[in-house]
Structures are given as structure tokens and as C-alpha cells.
Amino acid sequence: MRATVLHTSYDVRLEDVPDPKLDGPGDAIVKVVASCICGSDLWPYRGEPPVKAPRRIGHEFVGIVQEIGSEVRTVKPGDFVIAPFVVSDGTCPHCLAGFQTACVNRVGYGTDRADGGQGEYVKLPYADGTLVATPEVPDDSLVPSLLTLSDVMGTGWHAARSARVKPGDTVVVVGDGAVGLCGVLAAARMGAERVVSMSRHEPRQKLAKEFGATDIISERGDAGRDAVLELTDGVGADAVLECVGTGQSMTTAFDVARAGATVGFVGVPHGVEVPIGTMFGRNVGLAGGASPCRAYLPALMADVLAGEIDPGKVFDSVLPLADVAEGYRAMHERRAIKVMLRP
Amino acid sequence: MRATVLHTSYDVRLEDVPDPKLDGPGDAIVKVVASCICGSDLWPYRGEPPVKAPRRIGHEFVGIVQEIGSEVRTVKPGDFVIAPFVVSDGTCPHCLAGFQTACVNRVGYGTDRADGGQGEYVKLPYADGTLVATPEVPDDSLVPSLLTLSDVMGTGWHAARSARVKPGDTVVVVGDGAVGLCGVLAAARMGAERVVSMSRHEPRQKLAKEFGATDIISERGDAGRDAVLELTDGVGADAVLECVGTGQSMTTAFDVARAGATVGFVGVPHGVEVPIGTMFGRNVGLAGGASPCRAYLPALMADVLAGEIDPGKVFDSVLPLADVAEGYRAMHERRAIKVMLRP
Asked: Which of A87, A133, B38, B209 is 20 to 30 A from B76, comparing alpha carbons?
């Protein structure tokens, strides 16, 4: 089969690799219907950290189950399944508590135990603990939105949930990538009265509004903070979603939070120093992390199938898998919000 | 009148100072019935930060209202009142949201606007927003427990509330000072099934058990973490109360938290680096800060008056105000958990 391999910084290729085979009784092999490129894939693509050896990549995909091991019970060949971005056993204490990204048997994609998602097929272990099947094979028009449940929509939801968004809240979303935009959608769906998207890219501003943003702030840094404070009579936001992961975005997130608010963070932290003094003085909490998308999948899938949410709009580019290198370039250069790949 | 003045490191004295006078229509003058020394008073006492000029000190007291300004409505001369450790106006958005320590008109004790608490009288502004009166002047036996509502019991409660303790939880309390002990009491009162006190001082262990601790762990650092993990089948605690404020205590707090748990922190941070990578990977949140004791006062006061809680047991030393210097020494040398001062 063909699958994406990251060779070194800025060198990603679709290559022939061995066909997947079942290794254990809990395994499944999924024929990928659609996959995509994640903002977090761009870190190794840019050499942060440096790529030491060629590696398979990709952790967001949907597809049709081809084969299952003898002990798999919840999915069967022919099922359309959504794969959260981490493989989890579904039975450990952390999985049972709804924090599958901390599974004691957690497996990453693109390793020797699970194939990378940006390929034609993916073999993975713990199929029962990981995959979620739709009730029937969905219409192709629903594929983009279902694909977002692998990561970006589940992650935006996690940001909002971690920030404890509640009906009537004023919510600020820092970051206008696919996750930030899904965070806007999540906050609106949770009943926030005012959703402020901090975005300076016009197409993203437009999508933020479609997703429920009531206000757009294009300034950054101190000017961005001042704009939020002006919007909120100097008080700040009831909840803040930090969807970038840099030091600047985290600083802004704390700066715009009102006393007693929580910053929900889901951007992989890079160079972030947590302002513990600010947190203490103003009782601003910090919660979040790697989203347990598996926990949110059943409810969000129901919302997508019912037409309640349409997070698939974050895909502004669809490419054949063969053009994966162009997909990475487009996201790296911010020409695309998010690229979907179809084998 | 006489009041306590911190001159420089390790030099604290009871001195004659000018009698207080009402300055504004919202002021009150309280005759102190009992005050106490706080763990946070020990930081400047030890010269962290260095004392630049002699300053009045103390922020926990109860007393009888002597005089009020013309606009004070909720307390009157003769009332027994409890003073939270921060003066707050009670009307700003942060006060109304229950985060009075972030009041936009916040005033500290021992400043030119409010006298220090370790004195014979205290004048303060915003009496209506700050003081809470008991229904009647309480029996003297209740004074210690009511005095803890100024700070340590309200702060222990805030640690537990910030950590989102819920019935049935396994809770770890890091720190066996008065606040940590009150945190044990708070967690037990909130219905925690297992309350683990990390304490290596025998008298404090004993009090922790009286307050509801089910387990005591005397080890620190990695050994302490391992002991908690052994107690919890390797899973960790559902909620962690960090009641010290040092780098080591914060590290331990995160180390013993299970995935998805929250560390509630109330120790003033000194040299703390927040382990953002751990937080992200295991979804361990951090919340807390300067406790809005004013918000908790009515309910905790009712609990004390009803005999439901007896946090006053943290006072293992009662000294006349004239011996304030000995009180500081006793707490600094850890000969006393907490010292009450009676004028």
C-alpha cells in the first residue's frame, strides 16, 4: 500500500510500504476513506523536534473496516468508523474515567504498533477501545464533518469543556486554526452568549462567524487584550480557549480572563511559561491538554449526523493523497486552514 | 493603641501607634477580640521579600465593632464580626462573582487604608463588603474556630473547592500547616471517601486524623509520590490540594494527581514552575489562588455555630498580644502549628 513518510524537515512523501497485517486478536485494519493534516503534524514537519529517521505520519482518519481480530466486538468489516487521534484500550482506569489520551496502553499512530493515518490502510490494536462506528455508512457529504471528530472538533470541544463554558458566558477563543474555529463552534453550541474569536485572517474570521462568533478581534498582544477588556467593560472573559500553544497565545489567554475564569488549553505547549503569579492573584485556572476525543465521539457524531453541527467546513482544501506534500506546504504557509486527503 | 510592627527580618514588635479614626462613610473600627499569625506572615518575617521600612502586619482577626461610618448598613457597634484577610468593596463585578480577593478596590491590611490585624483595633474601609457579623456575640469557646474563617479554614475550603472535590473522591492534601489541615477538614466535609494527608510531624498527623484524614503519608518527594500511587493502585488521586506553595510541593501535587484531576493550589507560590507538559499529557488542571474567604464565610460560619466543624483546633498556642514576637518565633521554628493572639 501507499502511506505518507516524513523523511526530514520539509520532506514528506507518499511511498510504497508493506501492506498491513493483523497482529493480535484486538486489531483491526481500516481502509482509509479520508484523512487529514494536523497543525501538530507541522511541528515535526518544521523540524521541531528534528526528524531523526524517516517515520510514518498522520493520526486523523475515517474509513471502512476491512478485517478484525478474533476478539473485536464493537466494529465489523464494512462498518464506517471514526478513529480518535490516539489508540486506547478502553478498559484502564483513565479510559473508564473518560481520559483516553492518558490510557495506560496508549499507542500512537505512525509507530510499529499502529500505521500512520495518512495512508491507504491503517492497522491498529485495541479496535474496541478506539474506533467508533456510525450506525450506517454515511453519505459522502458527511465525511468531512465526521473526520473532524478524529481530532479538531473533539479538541475544540475539549478546550471549551476544560474552560467550563456555560450558557450565557462571554468566551474568548485565542487562535483561528481549525481547532480554534471548532472551539468557537463548541462554545456557541454550549450556549455561550458572546463568542469572541481572536483572528486576523479574513477567511478564518468569516468561518468563525459561521460557527457562531459574535465578535472578531484582529489585534494581538497587548492591543488584543485591551480590545477584549473594552468589549467586556474591563472585566474580562468568563472562559478562555487557548488553541495555539505558544507563549504569546498563553499570555493573551490569561490576560483576557476575568478573575475566577478558567483557561482551557489544547495547543501542544511550545515555549509556554505559566504565569503562576497571575493565576494566584486572580484565581484564573488552567485546564485541558490532549483531548480525549474518544470520550466525546458518540455525542458529537450524533450531532453531525443530525445536522446540528457542520465542523467539516474547516476543510478549505481537498487533495488526493498523492499530493500530500503540497498539503503540508499549503498548511505550513497558511494558504489552507486544514487539508483533507482522499486516497 | 498598641499594634504589631515588622521592623526588619526576624524583628517584630508590639508598639504604641496612633489610635484609629474613621476616615470615610464606609469605614468601621473593630476592637480585636483575637487575631493570629499566618504562614504567609512568615515570608516577610524571614525577609522574603526584604522589609524596606517598618510596617504594620496581620490580616486575620475577629472582634467587636466599635464605630461605623454613616453609610455602613450591615454591621453596627456591638456586633461580633469576622474579617476576611482582604478588604473588598462587595459591589464590583469580581466581588459579585464571588472572587473578592480580586476586588477592583481591594485593600490590604497593614497599609495606610486599613490597620494591621495584629493590634488592639483595626480601622478598615468597605465594612459592608468585608465584615460578616455573627447573629449574636458568640461564646468565647467558639472564637478560635470563627477566627479561622478569616483565612485558614476559608483557604483550605478554597483548595478543596478549586480541586473540585466531590463525594466519594480520593483526595491528597500536600502540606500539613494550618491551611493543609483545614483542607483535610474541607475535603472530608465535602464527602471525600479517602483523604490522604502528606505530613511528617506527629502532632499534625494526629490533628489531620481528627479532621478526617483516612491515611497519612510521611514520605516526601518521589517516595511520597510512590506511596500515594501504591495506595491508589497506581492510578493517583481524584483531587489534590496543594497547600504549601513551593516548587517541591507543587511537583508532588502533580505527581500524585490522576489523569483528569485538578490540583487546587492556595499556597502563595515561591519558586514554582508549573509542569505544563505533564498538565497537557495527563489533563491535570491547576486552579485556585488567593481564597475569596468572604464568599465562603456565611456558610462556614453557620457550620461552626452549629458545631459541624471545629477548625479552631489548629491553634495549638495562645499568647497575649504582648508576646507576638515569641509567636512568630514559635511558628517560624515550627514549634506551633498556628498561634492565636489575645489582646
From this structure: B38
CA dist., res. A268 & res. A59, Å (int) = 15
Residue A102 banded pLDDT, cuts 50, 70, 90: very high
Query: Mutate which of A249, A283, A294 to test chain B, going by most B C-beta atoms within 10 A?
Result: A283
Query: What is the third-level CATH fold of A153-288?
Result: Rossmann fold (3.40.50)
Residue B215 — very low, low, confident or very high, per pLDDT cuts 50/70/90?
Answer: very high
Give a three-class secondary structure readout of chain B.
Answer: CEEEEEEECCEEEEEECCCCCCCCCCCEEEEEEEEECCHHHHHHHCCCCCCCCCEECCCCEEEEEEEECCCCCCCCCCCEEEECCCECCCCCHHHHCCCHHHCCCCECCCCCCCCCCCECEEEECCHHHHCEECCCCCCHHHHHHHHHCCCHHHHHHHHHHHCCCCCCCEEEEECCCHHHHHHHHHHHHCCCCEEEEECCCHHHHHHHHHCCCCEEECCCHHHHHHHHHHHCCCCCEEEEEECCCEHHHHHHHHHHEEEEEEEEECCCCECCCCCHHHHHHHCCEEEECCCCHHHHHHHHHHHHHCCCCCHHHHCCEEEEHHHHHHHHHHHHCCCCCCEEEEC
Handedness of CA A325, A329, A331, A336 (dihedral sign): negative
Query: Cβ A274–B286 below 8 Å, yes or no?
Result: yes
Residue A215 pLDDT > 90, yes or no?
yes
Query: How high is the pLDDT of residue A49?
Result: 87
Pull the grid cell for residue B61: 482577626
Q: How far is A66 from chain B (nearest CA, A)?
A: 32
Give the torsion through C-alpha atoms of A39, A276, B237, B223, to 10 deg.
Answer: 110
Cell numbers found for residue B298: 456565611
Distance CA A13, CA A11 (A): 7
Q: Which fold has domain B2-151+292-342?
A: Quinone Oxidoreductase; Chain A, domain 1 (3.90.180)
Q: Tell me, what's the pLDDT at A113? A: 96
Please, which residues 35-94 of chain B have a Cβ atom closer than 8 Å to chain A? 93-94
The answer to whether A233 contacts chain B (CB < 8 Å) is yes
In this complex, is the C-beta atom of B262 within 8 Å of any C-beta atom belonging to chain A?
A: yes
Chain A nearest CA to B278, separation (Å): 9
Taking alpha carbons only, the member of B170, B188, B38 closest to residue B117 is B38
Take residue B188 and report the three cell numbers written for it.
472530608
Cell numbers for A312: 467539516
